[in-house]
């Protein structure tokens, strides 16, 4: 098949196929005069390149692709996939931590909304800070002295 048919079968363009060939990703392509001729293996290889790109691989990372039908080629591609999976796992961990932070912020906002607390950094900073703000005032010796001289005990009794 010619380059146009290969492009049509793989959902790409002749220009992209020429790029893959120039980068050595298709191996040696048969020619008849000035025309390139591709086979079923080339279709599979272009589909693999497109799938790898869709998964985030750059063309420069796919150097082992022309030799994928060898043990060394399979090993090279397996290493690439393992590296990509490790990067994805690291990104998932980062996103999980971000999600936990967003959930904590959302909980704080819902708590402030439920309690009708004015939105201030102190009021919604954390649930424990909010609980302290809502608790009765702690015993203050100066206030106790003022209350005692006025006839109160400081504990709500005259």
What does this structure look like?
With 158 residues, the protein is mainly α. The chain contains seven helices and two strands. It has helices spanning 3-10, 14-22, 40-54, 71-115, 121-124, 127-134, 141-149; strands at 30-32, 35-37. The chain has a two-stranded antiparallel ribbon. The longest helix is centred in the middle third of the chain and has 45 residues, at 71-115. The protein is elongated and about 80 Å long. It starts with a helix and ends in a 9-residue tail after the last helix. Mean pLDDT is 78; it is low at 129-158.
Could you outline the blueprint of secondary structure elements for this entry?
Blueprint: H1 3-10, H2 14-22, E1 30-32, E2 35-37, H3 40-54, H4 71-115, H5 121-124, H6 127-134, H7 141-149
Antiparallel strand pairs: 1-2
């Amino acid at each position: 098949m010619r380059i146009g048919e290969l492009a049509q079968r793989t959902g790409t363009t002749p220009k992209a196929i020429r790029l893959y060939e120039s980068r050595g990703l298709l191996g040696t392509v048969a020619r008849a005069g000035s025309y390139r001729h591709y086979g079923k293996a080339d279709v599979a290889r272009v589909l693999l390149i497109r799938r790898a790109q869709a998964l985030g691989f750059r063309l420069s990372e796919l150097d082992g692709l022309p030799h994928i039908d060898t043990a060394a080629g399979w090993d090279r591609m397996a290493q690439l996939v393992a590296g990509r999976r490790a990067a994805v796992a690291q990104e998932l961990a980062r996103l999980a931590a971000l999600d936990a932070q967003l959930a904590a912020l959302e909980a704080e906002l819902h708590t402030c909304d439920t309690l009708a607390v004015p939105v201030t950094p102190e009021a919604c900073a954390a649930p424990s800070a909010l609980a302290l703000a809502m608790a009765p005032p702690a015993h203050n010796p100066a206030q106790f002295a003022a209350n005692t001289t006025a006839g109160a005990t400081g504990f709500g009794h005259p």
